[in-house]
């Protein structure tokens, strides 16, 4: 089957197995090129198939030699339809991990459900005994509450008043003005229910009650703050309200884990290209400018560079540095004053005519398609490719 990118807006409906495998290989190669980390031994990653979750699993395995269980909700190939990128990513990761002698198994299903939580607990008990690191990295638009059955949908909207600013169509390079209407109270409530900390807390409580958390366990969820430019639609909007809830959850989990000598953190990460971030108006234009500035200064990082630095320089050191709110800040390079000053100047100038000169839109666009295994060096996209790829631990 000849597999080419097909997309609608910020959604790519195809994925390339060889391209995804190449992206995973490059992340593994990066970690192996760096120093070893005296880090976790048994790791659970909830939301393990793409982005920061996948990079966390790769870093734990190939940086620390950890055994890992990954939980995600991905679709295998069917007929002429390719699998999702996360399915191909996991297949490539597991094959590489097994070839290197590491334990790696995966569970595919709705991580919000009680059934998947129990299935995960059973696997930990059977194969690992206990886990000493739990990464929570879910990015889902919809959640069904496991107790009430209520279905929640998240929205990306400002709160209180309409918001207008520049945005870009990253497919054709058109810069335009976008106005987003404010969220209703019900939309805010549902977004917090999907993207806040309730499910993270349910996971940790279920794992603790099942006695599968090791002494000194660390649990970690990921968040973002970003610059003033994006605050109205992000940090001060519906997503930000959910992230506030996530950060409050970390503090309550800290108390929950006290008897184990454990720690609960939220890590504030750098802006990177993900399918989720591509859906947020204003953000792709900001990131295109940011990437240009950070690349020029030699400070640009993707998911794997961020996660390696997080593990090596923050989590597994004598003491984990945190800000006044108790958060880990691995967005420190992005938020440097010199970086943000330059991005702000470019933001004021940028338009459709000078976009190519002032931004790294091409780098952003390439990064978007690489999420799905396209535009990867060393992959022949003109040859027939078998879409049905198996994940070794999933029958």
Structure commentary:
The chain is α/β, with parallel strands linked by helices and 395 residues long. The chain has a single domain (7-370), classed as 3-Layer(aba) Sandwich (Rossmann fold). It has helices at 17-33, 51-64, 85-99, 114-128, 185-195, 198-209, 228-231, 238-256, 275-278, 283-296, 303-315, 337-349, 355-358, 361-370, and strands at residues 7-8, 11-12, 42-46, 67-72, 104-108, 131-136, 142-144, 151-153, 163-169, 174-180, 213-223, 263-268, 328-329. The strands form four sheets. The chain has a seven-stranded parallel sheet, sandwiched between helices. Helix 5 (185-195) crosses helix 8. The longest helix has 19 residues, at 238-256.
SSE layout and pairings?
Blueprint: E1 7-8, E2 11-12, H1 17-33, E3 42-46, H2 51-64, E4 67-72, H3 85-99, E5 104-108, H4 114-128, E6 131-136, E7 142-144, E8 151-153, E9 163-169, E10 174-180, H5 185-195, H6 198-209, E11 213-223, H7 228-231, H8 238-256, E12 263-268, H9 275-278, H10 283-296, H11 303-315, E13 328-329, H12 337-349, H13 355-358, H14 361-370
Parallel strand pairs: 3-4, 3-6, 4-5, 6-11, 11-12, 12-13
Antiparallel strand pairs: 1-2, 7-8, 9-10
Helix pairs in contact: 1-2, 1-3, 2-3, 2-11, 5-8, 6-8, 10-12, 10-14
């Amino acid at each position: 089957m000849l597999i080419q990118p097909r997309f609608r807006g910020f959604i790519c409906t195809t994925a390339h197995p060889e391209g995804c495998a190449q992206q995973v290989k490059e992340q593994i190669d990066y970690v192996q090129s760096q120093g070893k980390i005296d880090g976790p031994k048994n790791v659970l990653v909830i939301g393990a198939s793409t982005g920061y979750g996948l990079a966390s699993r790769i870093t734990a395995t190939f940086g620390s030699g950890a055994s890992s269980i990954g939980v995600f909700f991905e679709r295998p190939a069917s007929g002429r339809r390719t699998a999702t990128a996360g399915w191909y990513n996991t297949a490539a990761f597991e094959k590489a991990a097994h070839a290197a002698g590491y334990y790696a198994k995966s569970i595919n299903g709705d991580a919000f459900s009680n059934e998947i939580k129990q299935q995960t607990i059973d696997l930990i008990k059977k194969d690992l005994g206990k886990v000493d690191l739990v990464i929570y990295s879910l990015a889902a638009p919809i959640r069904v509450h496991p107790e009430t059955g209520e279905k929640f949908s998240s929205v990306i909207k400002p709160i209180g008043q309409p918001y207008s600013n520049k945005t870009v169509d990253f497919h054709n390079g058109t810069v335009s003005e976008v106005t987003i209407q404010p969220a209703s109270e019900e939309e805010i409530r549902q977004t917090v229910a999907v993207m806040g900390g309730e499910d993270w807390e349910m996971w940790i409580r279920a794992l603790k009650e099942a006695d599968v958390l090791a002494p000194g366990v660390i649990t970690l969820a990921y968040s973002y703050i970003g610059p003033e430019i994006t605050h109205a639609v992000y940090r001060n909007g519906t997503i930000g309200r959910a992230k506030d809830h996530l950060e409050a959850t970390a503090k309550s989990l800290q108390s929950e884990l006290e008897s184990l000598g454990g720690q609960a953190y939220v890590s504030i990460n750098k802006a990177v290209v993900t399918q989720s971030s591509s859906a947020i108006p204003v953000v792709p234009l900001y990131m295109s400018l940011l990437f240009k500035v950070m690349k020029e200064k030699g400070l640009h990082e993707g998911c794997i560079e961020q996660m390696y630095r997080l593990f090596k320089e923050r989590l597994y050191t004598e003491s984990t540095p945190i800000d006044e709110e108790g958060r880990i800040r691995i967005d420190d390079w992005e938020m440097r004053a010199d970086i943000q000053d330059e991005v702000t100047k470019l933001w004021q100038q940028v338009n459709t005519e000078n976009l190519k000169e002032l931004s790294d839109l091409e780098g952003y666009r390439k990064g978007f398609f690489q999420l799905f295994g396209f535009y990867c060096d060393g992959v022949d996209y003109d040859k027939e490719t078998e879409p049905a790829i198996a994940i070794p631990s999933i029958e």
